[in-house]
TrEMBL record, chain A:
InterPro entries: AAA+_ATPase, ABC_transporter-like_ATP-bd, P-loop_NTPase
Domain ABC transporter intervals: 5-234
Keyword Nucleotide-binding included in the entry's annotation: yes
Gene Ontology terms for molecular function: ATP binding; ATP hydrolysis activity
UniProt keywords, alphabetically: ATP-binding, Nucleotide-binding, Transport
CDD domains registered for this protein in UniProt: ABC_DR_subfamily_A
SUPFAM superfamilies hit by this protein: P-loop containing nucleoside triphosphate hydrolases (SSF52540)
Assigned protein family: Belongs to the ABC transporter superfamily.
Lineage, uppermost ranks: unclassified sequences, metagenomes, ecological metagenomes
Protein name according to UniProt: ABC transporter domain-containing protein
From TrEMBL, chain B:
Cellular compartment(s): Cell membrane
Chief location bin: membrane
Record domain ABC-2 type transporter transmembrane: where: 58-235
Membrane topology category: Multi-pass membrane protein
InterPro entries per UniProt: ABC-2_transporter_component, ABC2_TM
GO MF terms held by the record: ABC-type transporter activity
Keywords attached to this entry: Cell membrane, Membrane, Transmembrane, Transmembrane helix
This protein's GO CC annotations: plasma membrane
Protein name: ABC-2 type transporter transmembrane domain-containing protein
Keyword set includes Transcription: no
Amino acid sequence: MTLRIEIDDIAKHFGAIKAVDGVSFSVSKGEVLGFLGPNGAGKSTTMKMITGFLTPTRGTVRVCGHDVLQDPISVKANLGYLPEGAPAYADMTPDGFLKFIAEIRGLSGAAKRRAIDESADRARITTVMHQPIETLSKGYKRRVGLAQSILHNPPVLILDEPTDGLDPNQKHEVRTLINEMADDKAIIISTHILEEVHALCTRNVVIANGKVKFDGTPLELEAKSRYFNAVCVNVANIEQSQFEAFLTSLSYVSQVEKLDNNAGFRVYPKSGQQVTAQLSENIRENGWEIDALYAEHGRLDEVFRSITLPASEAKN
Amino acid sequence: MNLLNVWIIMKREFGGYFATPVAYVFIIIFLLLTGFSTFYVGNFFERGEADLYPFFSMHPWLYILLIPAISMRLWAEERKSGSIELLMTLPVSVFEAVLGKFMAAWAFTGLALFLNFPLWITVNYLGDPDNGVIIASFLGSLLMAGGFLAIGSCISAITKNQVIAFVLSLIVSLVFVLSGYGIVIDFFASWAPRTIVETISSFSFLTHFDAISKGVIDLRDMMYFISLIVIWLFANALIVNARKAD
């Protein structure tokens, strides 16, 4: 585990507004950190401080051991960055644009050509290399930005909403690309698309109002949901009320909830433990026939709301 | 300062002028205006002298109008499109970026200036001019264009709006040309101390260019334009640094 990104208590205040207010976390090689939070939570501002675009009001950022304030050029050389909205020089072609990036990144000759071809291939933009960027679709523009960020094979990747505005196929391709690169890089991805938590991330940091509200694995994030490991169950050959009484009497069950349309019951286990196997066994002991039995996943949208909103608003 | 980075940024920016018809339109208008001012305003033929003084003496006035059109996009466009975030997170320093962009605009101006060479051929065909004077004037004009461009580049970093950049640059350029002349001096004399008024009057582009346009290369005139460029570009870098994320 080599630490690639170390962020210590950074803050960014714009006048009286505290856009980021004391954020700390670190990212190691092999990690894909999903940076979650509602719009305006401070995700982009934090990323801009990591990449050296914004100067923090306080705190330090180190990338591959280099301090972003003392040695910004080394930090920038070690990271690839896709800014929000994937800005590029619109009147250039992807080919010309990537050539410029490659040269600025210190590549020349055959190495430059190879880097451009490889990144264009990985980002799947080889068919549009000679069209002006301003004529490309949103998806292609995003991928040109992605190609630019991975061109020099950086040890650290910072991607600000890399799948925003892409169609499901394009999202899938971008996720595949990121997963391919994940092993030998430290990657931070900001997103508010919750399905990406499972599709991409090995770890999540949730921020709201400029502060870190959660830092852990996707599973730990899910476990915060009250639905985590809840079991939905229905049986055929018994009165519903009798079955409900039976479920309530079980020692490992904390709560039983009736599902709509007589579809059975949702059983909440005590302290989030896995109870599917045991429940199934207990039902069979009684000789009842199981119609449906499945464990629920944690509901991320609900967790997201409860973490990022004040308690009073989260209920609605 | 990594000169290779300056060169790479300059190359990209220079190419950017030719990615759209802007460069060609600009060059054609520049040539039309220099031709017009040389023959009709400067009375090239009627003077009956084999030199290019009528051509060069009009340059300060042409530059007031045309240079802001070249410099207005340098930073305003970068900030408006958001590509400044990309540029400033590449491993280049602000000074390298400022210098690279400035050099591109300067090279483009030099190219437009060079394309007036038929005029030089004409005057050599008609008479026997002092070509040393013409070369000195050419370099002097280029140096003055650099001064205008540095002002324009700096002002372009203040705003995201190219039209505002254009108008502001035009006004500041006008002030720099006219300082030392009546209206500007009167404006300052009413409230500023004498020494400041005298300093301002010594800042006129016209005074420093007049000798150069006659082929007299004075080190003080050269230093005036060079230090002007350095100061404006330094301010340019400070402004880019302060306002890049706005």
